[in-house]
Amino acid sequence: MTTDIDALVHGVQEGDRRTLARAITLVESGLSADLDASLELLNQLHSAATSKDSIRIGITGVPGVGKSTFINAFGEHMIQQGLQVAVLAIDPTSTRSGGSILGDKTRMEQLSRNPQAFIRPTPGGLHPGGVARRTRDTIALCEAAGFDAILVETIGVGQSEVSVADIVDTVVLLTLAGAGDDLQGIKRGIMELADVLVIHKSDGDNQLPSRVAASELANVINLLPRRFEAWQPTIDTCSSLSGQGIPEVFSRVQEHRSALGNKTIREHRREQSLRGFDDTLRDLVINEFLQRPEVAQRLGDLQAKVRSGELHPTAAAVRLLTK
Amino acid sequence: MTTDIDALVHGVQEGDRRTLARAITLVESGLSADLDASLELLNQLHSAATSKDSIRIGITGVPGVGKSTFINAFGEHMIQQGLQVAVLAIDPTSTRSGGSILGDKTRMEQLSRNPQAFIRPTPGGLHPGGVARRTRDTIALCEAAGFDAILVETIGVGQSEVSVADIVDTVVLLTLAGAGDDLQGIKRGIMELADVLVIHKSDGDNQLPSRVAASELANVINLLPRRFEAWQPTIDTCSSLSGQGIPEVFSRVQEHRSALGNKTIREHRREQSLRGFDDTLRDLVINEFLQRPEVAQRLGDLQAKVRSGELHPTAAAVRLLTK
After folding, report:
1. Between chains, do A42 and B315 touch, taking CB under 8 Å as contact?
2. β-pairing verdict for B234-237 and B170-176
3. I need a surface site. Which of A132, B120, B156, B210 has the fewest CB within 10 A?
4. Residues of chain B with C-beta less than 8 angstroms from the C-beta of A35
5. Do B316 and B306 touch, CB atoms closer than 8 A?
6. Contact assignment for A314 to B276 by CB distance below 8 Å
7. How large is the angle between the packed helices A128-144 and A5-13, nearest 10 degrees?
8. How close does chain A come to B186, measured CA to CA in Å?
């Protein structure tokens, strides 16, 4: 496939949504034939993307916590503040718990009709490193297209939550009120990575339990190591249904950015870029190797021999690498 | 370095501890010069290792839960049942929480003096995949050396707990009694991977709280998806200090093996081998790439350019790969 890179670069910088979507598709492509084009595209848009003073927010929480509904309300609020908002929804490929973004379109219906918003699901079926790389690149494209705020939605299971902290400035963790049992559902690991905690669905009869859960959670997070020295994670309640608390969550995000300061945010992004470079390198090196005809040809046979017990896994791997 | 593989193979099969230790060091070596020798060694010992009807147990739990003390008592009990026990302690390289096995030698002093036991720490400083591969290979060597039971100790943080479920038959998770807060410290992810749960340090004034914690935990694990269809995870209390409950934990492990049956255990190990092959392949391919002189030479420069923002991470990675 030949791609007219100049047209893509121009269209993205003009903020044309259809061109942006095509550019993302190119960058997401796992085909080595598209690699040169996507590299060229990222390179040409790199300075436009990095000069942009964007807000990168990760929205995470277990399935059922209402991330899409929250993003619908939160995104609308940000747009009312004069921002252009891009939403990237990651569908992780956790082997154990999984997750689906089916039905999310209806939950984000209001936002998806707003001309100041751009919603893009990231395809699943990739290993976590691949998802992180593609999301990182998609963020760059959205920033080059002029978006002020990027919301990255991840299902907080498996390794995806680690990845989201690697690609955003501020991590918002949604959770629900309920009996003590609920708190057990939140992984300590993900709490350690959250900057802004939100007890979601705090409406109707659920308002009091939500406030109770918030104060319970406050005790827990005080014990956790801080992600940033300058920031003590906050806890608020909110309802995407009534809109209560939505502006406050956005204020928290802004407070988080002020507390860190531009210098720390920039430094943090540099560290993230460096990790992204390492991850991407691994990803690409493996893919290049597995696509070699002599490797692809022999892989199945060696897998079968490992499975039958005929070959030791390490020995089989070394054999594929050296012969 | 030239290595006398025949002498190593012979010594390991004789069960000579010093030779076993040398063989493990060879397999752990990251040096490409040792790769051929370690491959040859693993290949020659492969049939001896796979024919062995060993018990592979993972012992996991957060730092401070008393894993080493437990292994000291648990290992002694297994030896009293006529088994030879190898202990492999993994020191993970979690970027956030970390962990240390300093002081473990004293906590396993009794076991380390027992001639039926073999204790081996796995060096840290490796990424999770590397740890899993080396531990997998070390298990093979210990089994070839005639050990009946392999205890793999991991600190249940970061990604190490996922790895341990990938290399053992039965996962024993240690936790402590306490207020509701404690349960939050256990990640749901790790609970989903545990077969035998143990409330540890159930002695003195802690016995009643331990029993309470056990029944609380029973409610939680009933809600979790099962790792094996044939097995509902169990919960017991035990004290490595008094010895109370130690035989029961071993009984649970045996019950787990019986419930699964030899066929399922073998099938499970085959799946693990296949995953091990994949992981090892990735590991080796990356290492081979990074050790190429032209790559090693340019890596630092590209990292600096990514860090300064001059180059997009993906673009830098592609550049290193293609030019």
Report:
1. yes
2. unpaired
3. B120
4. 318, 322
5. yes
6. yes
7. 70
8. 7
Gap between the Cα atoms of A12 and A26, Å rounded:
13
Which residues from chain B sit within 8 angstroms of residue A135, using beta carbons?
none
Residues 6+ apart with CB under 8 A from A173: A60, A61, A156, A186, A190, A191, A193, A194, A196, A197, A198
Q: What is the distance in angstroms between the Cα of B33 and the nearest Cα belonging to chain A?
A: 13
Q: What distance in Å separates residue B290's CA from the closest CA in chain A?
A: 10
Q: Do A288 and B140 touch (CB under 8 A)?
A: no
Say yes or no: B58 and B151 in one domain: yes
Q: Which domain holds residue B303?
A: 292-322
Helices (H), A91-193: 104-107, 109-113, 128-144, 160-165, 180-185, 188-192
Contact criterion met (CB < 8 Å) for A96 and B189: yes
- Going residue by residue through chain B (323 aa), what tens digit of pLDDT does each one get? 456 899 999 999 999 999 999 999 998 886 767 878 888 898 888 877 777 789 999 998 877 788 889 999 999 999 999 999 999 987 543 333 333 444 445 678 888 889 999 998 866 555 555 677 788 889 999 999 999 999 998 865 444 445 788 889 999 999 888 634 444 445 555 677 889 999 999 999 999 989 988 888 887 777 777 778 899 999 999 999 999 999 999 999 999 999 999 999 999 999 999 988 988 898 889 988 998 999 988 999 999 999 888 888 888 888 898 76
- B101 with B121, same domain: the answer is yes
Count structural domains, chain B.
3
A81 and A196 in a common domain: yes
* Same-domain status, A8 and A76: no
In a domain, A275, yes or no: no
Same domain, A191 and A60: yes
B243 and B218, same structural domain? yes
**Could you tell me if residue B312 is inside a domain?**
yes
Same domain, A231 and A303: no
- Would you say A63 and A153 are in contact if contact means Cβ atoms under 8 Å apart? no
* A152 and A256 housed in the same domain: yes
Instruction: Using an 8 Å CB-CB cutoff, list chain A residues near B24.
Output: none
- Domain-located, residue A135: yes
Nearest alpha carbon to residue A85 among A47, A51, A59, A48: A59
Subunit contact B286:A284, Cβ cutoff 8 A: no
Q: What CATH number did the domain enclosing B15 receive? A: 1.20.5
CATH number for the domain spanning B233: value is 3.40.50.300
Task: Find the CB nearest B43 among A281, A303, A312.
Answer: A312
Cβ-defined contact of A285 to B43 (cutoff 8 Å): no
Position A276 in a domain: no
